[in-house]
Amino acid sequence: DGGITQSPKYLFRKEGQNVTLSCEQNLNHDAMYWYRQDPGQGLRLIYYSQIVNDFQKGDIAEGYSVSREKKESFPLTVTSAQKNPTAFYLCASSRRQPDQPQHFGDGTRLSIL
Amino acid sequence: GQQLNQSPQSMFIQEGEDVSMNCTSSSIFNTWLWYKQDPGEGPVLLIALYKAGELTSNGRLTAQFGITRKDSFLNISASIPSDVGIYFCAGTGANSKLTFGKGITLSVRP
What we know:
The complex is a heterodimer. By secondary structure, chain A is mainly β. Helices cover about 0% and strands about 50% of the residues of chain A. The relative contact order of chain A is 0.33. In chain B, strands 2, 4, 5, 9, 10 and 11 form a six-stranded mixed β-sheet that branches. A five-stranded antiparallel β-sheet of chain B has the order 1-3-8-7-6, with no helix packed on it. Chain B contains no helices and eleven strands. In chain B, β7 and β8 form a beta hairpin. Chain B is globular and about 40 Å long.
């Protein structure tokens, strides 16, 4: 079945450590996105990519980094510069044309040890 | 910037009841989307709307794209316990970026 796979489901980070969240899609979508979800805050855009080897900052990019070396993959690194990383992280993908709906993975919950 | 307003933050209904939730904006949107999120999972697309006035159904769910293009509503008929979750509206406006509302948490009492 086509879909978006995020791993791991749960992740723990020590102080000063970088961690990488994986997102893979087999929907043949050009565009991919990373969101952060906090209780009562809705979804906030971290980074997005419309095409391989290109990505743009979203509304809350500080303390995060991404890469887009393959169409299917869009990993997110939460760096030690992100002082409040505890959240639910959601990856999404869509066709590149305007107004195309985004489809989401099942998320990764990141917590601080 | 573009903002979508969803209120109240939580709704409580009795099993079997209908419920309606709406989403409003001060600016015009070209697309309206409704998602449902179960606890610990990602949002799932319920209905997508692309034309002003469009009314679309998906089982017990019905959504409409407002004529003014500044609002949309989602109606759930004959609610059941598995309707529990967070319902998000989302839309794309002039900048083609997808904007999300903060969501409404729906609880269904048996």
